[in-house]
Design a protein that fits this description.
Layout: E1 5-8, H1 17-26, E2 31-34, E3 36-37, E4 40-41, H2 47-60, E5 63-68, H3 81-97, E6 102-105, H4 120-134, E7 140-144, H5 154-163, E8 168-171, H6 173-178, H7 183-190, E9 194-199, E10 201-202, E11 209-210, H8 219-228, E12 233-236, H9 266-280
Parallel strand pairs: 1-2, 1-12, 2-5, 5-6, 6-7, 7-8, 8-9, 9-12
Antiparallel strand pairs: 3-4, 10-11
Helix pairs in contact: 1-2, 2-3, 3-4, 5-7
Protein backbone atom coordinates (compact mmCIF):
# COMPACT_ATOMS: atom_id res chain seq x y z
CA UNK A 1 0.00 0.00 0.00
CA UNK A 2 1.36 3.42 -0.96
CA UNK A 3 1.91 6.33 1.41
CA UNK A 4 -0.82 8.91 0.80
CA UNK A 5 -0.11 12.44 -0.28
CA UNK A 6 -2.73 14.82 1.05
CA UNK A 7 -3.65 18.11 -0.58
CA UNK A 8 -6.56 20.47 0.07
CA UNK A 9 -8.81 23.20 -1.19
CA UNK A 10 -7.29 25.53 1.36
CA UNK A 11 -9.35 28.48 0.14
CA UNK A 12 -12.00 27.02 2.44
CA UNK A 13 -9.73 28.03 5.35
CA UNK A 14 -8.84 31.46 3.97
CA UNK A 15 -9.36 33.42 0.75
CA UNK A 16 -5.79 34.69 1.04
CA UNK A 17 -2.73 32.71 0.04
CA UNK A 18 -0.87 33.43 3.28
CA UNK A 19 -3.81 32.01 5.26
CA UNK A 20 -4.01 28.98 2.98
CA UNK A 21 -0.31 28.28 3.48
CA UNK A 22 -0.75 28.55 7.25
CA UNK A 23 -3.69 26.10 7.15
CA UNK A 24 -1.74 23.56 5.08
CA UNK A 25 1.33 23.81 7.30
CA UNK A 26 -0.78 23.55 10.46
CA UNK A 27 -2.31 20.31 9.22
CA UNK A 28 0.88 18.80 7.83
CA UNK A 29 -0.39 18.64 4.23
CA UNK A 30 1.70 18.17 1.10
CA UNK A 31 0.18 21.05 -0.79
CA UNK A 32 -2.75 22.56 -2.57
CA UNK A 33 -5.49 21.92 -5.05
CA UNK A 34 -5.60 25.59 -5.84
CA UNK A 35 -8.97 27.22 -6.51
CA UNK A 36 -9.25 30.82 -5.27
CA UNK A 37 -6.22 33.06 -4.86
CA UNK A 38 -6.53 36.29 -2.87
CA UNK A 39 -10.17 36.63 -3.94
CA UNK A 40 -9.74 35.62 -7.59
CA UNK A 41 -10.35 32.25 -9.23
CA UNK A 42 -7.07 30.62 -10.14
CA UNK A 43 -8.15 30.19 -13.78
CA UNK A 44 -8.27 33.97 -14.14
CA UNK A 45 -5.06 35.03 -12.38
CA UNK A 46 -2.19 36.49 -14.39
CA UNK A 47 0.95 34.48 -15.06
CA UNK A 48 2.83 37.04 -12.98
CA UNK A 49 0.51 36.33 -10.04
CA UNK A 50 0.93 32.59 -10.60
CA UNK A 51 4.71 32.91 -10.41
CA UNK A 52 4.35 34.96 -7.20
CA UNK A 53 2.16 32.24 -5.68
CA UNK A 54 4.57 29.53 -6.75
CA UNK A 55 7.46 31.31 -5.02
CA UNK A 56 5.45 31.57 -1.79
CA UNK A 57 4.60 27.89 -1.92
CA UNK A 58 8.17 26.88 -2.78
CA UNK A 59 9.42 28.89 0.20
CA UNK A 60 6.89 27.06 2.42
CA UNK A 61 7.88 23.64 1.07
CA UNK A 62 4.45 23.10 -0.50
CA UNK A 63 3.36 22.11 -4.00
CA UNK A 64 0.33 22.58 -6.24
CA UNK A 65 -1.08 19.18 -7.14
CA UNK A 66 -4.04 20.32 -9.23
CA UNK A 67 -5.80 23.42 -10.51
CA UNK A 68 -9.31 23.41 -9.05
CA UNK A 69 -10.67 25.11 -12.14
CA UNK A 70 -14.27 25.75 -13.25
CA UNK A 71 -13.42 24.58 -16.77
CA UNK A 72 -16.40 22.71 -18.21
CA UNK A 73 -18.80 24.21 -15.68
CA UNK A 74 -20.83 26.07 -18.29
CA UNK A 75 -24.27 25.55 -19.79
CA UNK A 76 -24.09 23.17 -22.76
CA UNK A 77 -26.66 25.25 -24.69
CA UNK A 78 -26.29 28.87 -23.65
CA UNK A 79 -22.65 29.63 -22.89
CA UNK A 80 -19.85 30.54 -25.30
CA UNK A 81 -17.73 27.44 -25.75
CA UNK A 82 -15.07 29.09 -27.93
CA UNK A 83 -14.42 31.70 -25.23
CA UNK A 84 -14.26 28.84 -22.74
CA UNK A 85 -11.50 27.20 -24.79
CA UNK A 86 -9.51 30.41 -24.46
CA UNK A 87 -10.00 30.18 -20.68
CA UNK A 88 -8.71 26.60 -20.82
CA UNK A 89 -5.59 27.68 -22.72
CA UNK A 90 -4.88 30.34 -20.09
CA UNK A 91 -5.51 27.88 -17.25
CA UNK A 92 -2.96 25.49 -18.77
CA UNK A 93 -0.43 28.35 -18.82
CA UNK A 94 -1.24 29.07 -15.16
CA UNK A 95 -0.76 25.39 -14.31
CA UNK A 96 2.65 25.36 -15.95
CA UNK A 97 3.66 28.54 -14.11
CA UNK A 98 2.66 26.83 -10.84
CA UNK A 99 4.57 23.66 -11.78
CA UNK A 100 1.26 21.79 -11.59
CA UNK A 101 0.45 18.67 -13.61
CA UNK A 102 -3.35 18.47 -13.31
CA UNK A 103 -6.43 20.56 -14.05
CA UNK A 104 -9.73 19.52 -12.48
CA UNK A 105 -12.58 20.05 -14.94
CA UNK A 106 -16.21 19.17 -15.70
CA UNK A 107 -18.50 18.00 -18.52
CA UNK A 108 -21.01 20.86 -18.87
CA UNK A 109 -24.29 21.67 -17.19
CA UNK A 110 -27.30 20.00 -18.78
CA UNK A 111 -30.49 22.14 -18.93
CA UNK A 112 -32.82 21.26 -16.09
CA UNK A 113 -35.41 18.70 -17.08
CA UNK A 114 -33.55 17.63 -20.22
CA UNK A 115 -32.21 14.13 -20.86
CA UNK A 116 -28.39 14.08 -20.64
CA UNK A 117 -28.31 11.39 -23.35
CA UNK A 118 -29.55 13.96 -25.86
CA UNK A 119 -26.31 15.89 -25.36
CA UNK A 120 -23.91 12.95 -25.50
CA UNK A 121 -22.33 13.73 -28.87
CA UNK A 122 -21.97 17.44 -28.14
CA UNK A 123 -20.37 16.75 -24.76
CA UNK A 124 -17.89 14.24 -26.15
CA UNK A 125 -17.00 16.43 -29.13
CA UNK A 126 -16.30 19.38 -26.82
CA UNK A 127 -14.28 17.28 -24.39
CA UNK A 128 -12.20 15.94 -27.30
CA UNK A 129 -11.40 19.50 -28.35
CA UNK A 130 -10.36 20.29 -24.79
CA UNK A 131 -8.18 17.18 -24.65
CA UNK A 132 -6.58 18.18 -27.96
CA UNK A 133 -5.62 21.56 -26.47
CA UNK A 134 -4.09 19.93 -23.38
CA UNK A 135 -2.20 17.27 -25.34
CA UNK A 136 1.60 17.61 -25.20
CA UNK A 137 1.44 20.41 -22.59
CA UNK A 138 2.44 18.17 -19.67
CA UNK A 139 -0.90 18.96 -18.01
CA UNK A 140 -3.61 16.31 -17.53
CA UNK A 141 -7.31 17.17 -17.60
CA UNK A 142 -9.09 15.41 -14.71
CA UNK A 143 -12.87 15.06 -14.86
CA UNK A 144 -14.82 15.36 -11.60
CA UNK A 145 -18.34 14.02 -11.10
CA UNK A 146 -20.50 17.00 -10.19
CA UNK A 147 -24.21 17.57 -9.69
CA UNK A 148 -26.07 18.70 -12.80
CA UNK A 149 -23.36 18.05 -15.39
CA UNK A 150 -23.33 15.33 -18.04
CA UNK A 151 -20.88 13.26 -15.99
CA UNK A 152 -22.80 13.38 -12.73
CA UNK A 153 -23.48 9.62 -12.58
CA UNK A 154 -20.87 6.88 -12.71
CA UNK A 155 -21.97 5.33 -16.00
CA UNK A 156 -21.60 8.62 -17.86
CA UNK A 157 -18.27 9.31 -16.12
CA UNK A 158 -17.07 5.93 -17.38
CA UNK A 159 -18.29 6.74 -20.88
CA UNK A 160 -16.25 9.96 -20.89
CA UNK A 161 -13.11 8.28 -19.56
CA UNK A 162 -13.40 5.40 -22.03
CA UNK A 163 -14.13 7.59 -25.03
CA UNK A 164 -11.37 10.12 -24.24
CA UNK A 165 -8.55 8.24 -22.47
CA UNK A 166 -6.39 11.38 -22.24
CA UNK A 167 -8.83 12.60 -19.57
CA UNK A 168 -8.33 11.12 -16.10
CA UNK A 169 -10.93 10.69 -13.36
CA UNK A 170 -11.48 12.46 -10.05
CA UNK A 171 -13.79 10.58 -7.67
CA UNK A 172 -15.89 12.70 -5.29
CA UNK A 173 -18.04 10.50 -3.00
CA UNK A 174 -20.19 13.36 -1.66
CA UNK A 175 -21.17 14.54 -5.13
CA UNK A 176 -22.28 11.00 -6.01
CA UNK A 177 -24.32 10.79 -2.80
CA UNK A 178 -26.00 14.12 -3.60
CA UNK A 179 -26.97 12.65 -6.99
CA UNK A 180 -28.43 9.51 -5.38
CA UNK A 181 -25.60 7.31 -6.66
CA UNK A 182 -24.39 4.30 -4.67
CA UNK A 183 -20.68 5.08 -4.25
CA UNK A 184 -19.66 1.41 -3.99
CA UNK A 185 -21.20 0.71 -7.40
CA UNK A 186 -19.62 3.89 -8.73
CA UNK A 187 -16.22 2.83 -7.41
CA UNK A 188 -16.48 -0.61 -9.02
CA UNK A 189 -17.21 1.02 -12.36
CA UNK A 190 -14.56 3.72 -12.18
CA UNK A 191 -11.72 2.47 -9.98
CA UNK A 192 -9.41 1.70 -12.89
CA UNK A 193 -9.79 5.23 -14.26
CA UNK A 194 -9.31 7.32 -11.10
CA UNK A 195 -6.21 9.48 -10.79
CA UNK A 196 -7.14 10.99 -7.42
CA UNK A 197 -9.87 11.36 -4.82
CA UNK A 198 -11.75 14.30 -3.41
CA UNK A 199 -12.30 13.66 0.28
CA UNK A 200 -15.83 14.81 0.93
CA UNK A 201 -18.77 12.91 2.44
CA UNK A 202 -22.52 13.53 2.52
CA UNK A 203 -25.84 12.09 3.69
CA UNK A 204 -28.47 10.58 1.40
CA UNK A 205 -31.21 11.92 3.67
CA UNK A 206 -30.74 15.60 2.85
CA UNK A 207 -27.47 15.85 0.92
CA UNK A 208 -25.63 17.85 3.52
CA UNK A 209 -21.88 17.49 3.79
CA UNK A 210 -20.29 15.87 6.84
CA UNK A 211 -16.72 14.98 7.81
CA UNK A 212 -15.20 12.04 5.92
CA UNK A 213 -16.48 8.73 7.29
CA UNK A 214 -19.59 10.26 8.88
CA UNK A 215 -21.81 10.07 5.81
CA UNK A 216 -23.12 7.63 3.22
CA UNK A 217 -20.23 7.94 0.78
CA UNK A 218 -18.32 4.83 1.97
CA UNK A 219 -15.25 7.06 2.15
CA UNK A 220 -13.11 4.80 4.41
CA UNK A 221 -13.61 1.80 2.09
CA UNK A 222 -12.94 3.80 -1.07
CA UNK A 223 -9.80 5.43 0.35
CA UNK A 224 -8.48 2.02 1.42
CA UNK A 225 -9.23 0.45 -1.97
CA UNK A 226 -7.64 3.39 -3.79
CA UNK A 227 -4.45 3.04 -1.76
CA UNK A 228 -4.42 -0.75 -2.20
CA UNK A 229 -4.49 -0.36 -5.98
CA UNK A 230 -1.48 1.97 -5.84
CA UNK A 231 -3.23 5.32 -5.65
CA UNK A 232 -1.57 8.01 -3.61
CA UNK A 233 -3.07 11.48 -4.01
CA UNK A 234 -6.23 12.88 -2.45
CA UNK A 235 -7.62 16.35 -1.90
CA UNK A 236 -9.53 17.37 1.23
CA UNK A 237 -12.57 19.42 0.17
CA UNK A 238 -14.19 20.35 3.50
CA UNK A 239 -17.48 22.05 2.49
CA UNK A 240 -18.37 22.10 6.19
CA UNK A 241 -18.81 25.88 6.41
CA UNK A 242 -19.71 28.67 4.00
CA UNK A 243 -16.53 30.24 2.66
CA UNK A 244 -15.55 33.15 0.44
CA UNK A 245 -15.94 32.16 -3.19
CA UNK A 246 -18.56 29.44 -2.60
CA UNK A 247 -21.20 31.24 -4.66
CA UNK A 248 -18.94 31.09 -7.73
CA UNK A 249 -18.89 27.27 -7.49
CA UNK A 250 -22.67 26.92 -7.60
CA UNK A 251 -25.08 26.71 -10.48
CA UNK A 252 -27.65 29.54 -10.26
CA UNK A 253 -30.43 28.41 -7.95
CA UNK A 254 -28.37 25.64 -6.39
CA UNK A 255 -28.03 25.61 -2.62
CA UNK A 256 -25.51 23.70 -0.53
CA UNK A 257 -26.15 22.42 2.96
CA UNK A 258 -23.20 23.82 4.88
CA UNK A 259 -22.64 25.12 8.40
CA UNK A 260 -24.74 22.32 9.89
CA UNK A 261 -22.03 21.33 12.38
CA UNK A 262 -21.64 24.76 13.96
CA UNK A 263 -17.90 25.22 13.41
CA UNK A 264 -16.82 28.56 14.89
CA UNK A 265 -14.58 29.55 11.97
CA UNK A 266 -13.45 28.50 8.53
CA UNK A 267 -10.11 27.46 10.00
CA UNK A 268 -11.89 25.20 12.48
CA UNK A 269 -14.00 23.58 9.75
CA UNK A 270 -10.91 23.07 7.58
CA UNK A 271 -8.97 21.51 10.45
CA UNK A 272 -11.90 19.20 11.25
CA UNK A 273 -12.02 17.97 7.64
CA UNK A 274 -8.28 17.27 7.64
CA UNK A 275 -8.50 15.48 10.99
CA UNK A 276 -11.36 13.28 9.73
CA UNK A 277 -9.29 12.05 6.79
CA UNK A 278 -6.23 11.38 8.97
CA UNK A 279 -8.40 9.44 11.43
CA UNK A 280 -9.58 7.00 8.78
CA UNK A 281 -6.20 6.49 7.11
Amino acid sequence: MTTPRIYAFADEASPFMDGQIAAMKRNGLNGLEIRNVDGENVSAISLEKAREVRKKLDDAGLTVWSIGSPIGKIDIEKDDFEAHLDALRHTIDVAKALNCENIRMFSFYIPEGKNPADYRNTVLDRLRRMADIARCTGVTLCHENEKGIYGDMADRCLEILNEIPEIAGVFDPANFVQCGQDTLKAWELLKGKIKYLHIKDALFADGHVVPAGKGDGNVPFIVNEYLKQGGQCMTVEPHLKVFSGLAHLERPGESRSLDTEGYPSNDAAFDAACAALKALL
